[in-house]
Design a protein that fits this description.
The chain is an all-alpha fold. It has one domain. It is 76% helix and 0% strand.
């Protein structure tokens, strides 16, 4: 169940961060509400994930997955095209997430 909560936390965080661009400094109410709700949901899901996984592992996975997913979604939504070096960095982040997942550090 921890993995499901972690994934839901990443999704909520990703949607929230992508919507943040639309708030225009929190002057637009609907995107602003989406950002605040998304952040609250992300933290609620992460707190549930931490019941079954170590804090450091949850945070590392959440941060890495959120970085990659926000980048991918903003590329689609805002047509923000990144150079090859940036994508190589994203590949390293994704590799790190896989290595953390494969490690024994997340077992109880």
């Amino acid at each position: 169940m921890s993995w499901l909560f972690l994934l839901l936390g990443v999704i909520a965080e990703t949607l929230s961060h992508v919507a943040l661009k639309e708030t225009e400094g929190f002057t637009r109410p609907i995107p602003s509400a989406l950002v605040l709700t998304g952040h609250l949901a992300a933290f609620m899901f992460l707190s549930q994930a931490m019941k079954g996984m170590p804090v450091g592992i949850v945070h590392a996975l959440w941060a890495g997955l959120a970085i990659v997913s926000v980048t991918l979604l903003s590329t689609i939504v805002y047509r923000q095209h990144l150079d090859l070096t940036t994508w190589a960095g994203m590949a390293l982040v994704a590799t790190g997430v896989v290595l953390i997942n494969l490690s024994q550090g997340h077992a109880h």
